[in-house]
Amino acid sequence: MLKDLLSYKFRLRRARLLSEFLVSFEPPINVLDVGGTADFWDKFSESIDKKINVTILNIDLEDRQTSYRLVRGDARSLPFKDNMFDVIFSNSLIEHFGSFNDQQKVAREIRRVGKRYFIQTPNRNFAIEPHFVFPFFQFLPLPMKIFLLQKFNLGWVGRIKDKKLAEETVSSFRLLNFYDLKALFPDGEIINERLLGLTKSFIIFK
User: Does 106 lie in the same domain as 141?
Assistant: First the structure.
């Protein structure tokens, strides 16, 4: 499908940018992936020849054998010491926290435990909401979002008939715009990921 091809294209570009970002570090490079998966690093490690020690933190850990360190935890309260990692990497995670207060907690923790960071997140002002894959879904009133999710199979989320669960689901996303991102990471530089000339998502890095 087209959305799968586009998603794959953007993942490849992010992997290339991340590789270019990491080459400036002296190995071994200690990386914390907040909200990531071992599958990503299995594929990414083929594109870089430097030694990377990867720790993956997630609420839901994968049930598989892997050479990476897997830690169960919450991004709002990372169980690590200050400046413990050379780089914090996070891909499409911070928008999954439904309040700006929680997103501030995530950003503070990322900046606390990492010397540098490389964060990707969708642009709130892009025409298509990336999780529900529906035009301007992020700007609709909450009751309308709940109604649509109960009635239609939307994007990566699917259809949720239960009203309470539908409300919890739509309330668990808060997309960020350029100014939100700069407020969360004031020392970061932003790269615009564009689709048809429009900013689809952001990468902010330090």
Answer: no
Q: What is the pLDDT of residues 93-128, one digit of tens each?
A: 999 999 999 999 999 999 999 999 999 999 999 999
Look up the CATH number of the domain holding residue 31: 3.40.50.150
Beta bridge partners of 202: 121, 192
* 138 φ, ψ (degrees, to nearest 5): -65, -20
Domain total of the chain: 2
72 Cβ contact partners less than 8 Å away, ≥ 6 residues apart? 57, 58, 59, 61
| Total-model pTM | 0.91
For 173, other C-beta atoms within 10 Å of its C-beta total 19
Are 66 and 140 in a shared domain?
no
Decide if pLDDT at 63 tops 80. no
Find the domain containing 157 and state its range.
Answer: 132-172
Q: Calculate helix-pair angle for 142-151, 163-171, nearest 10 degrees.
A: 120
Residues in contact with 128: Cβ distance below 8 Å, sequence separation at least 6, in sequence order: 134, 135
Token pair belonging to 95: 């928008």
Residue 119: name the closest of 128, 133, 134, 108 by CA.
108
CA distance 189 to 43: 26
Same domain, 39 and 120: yes
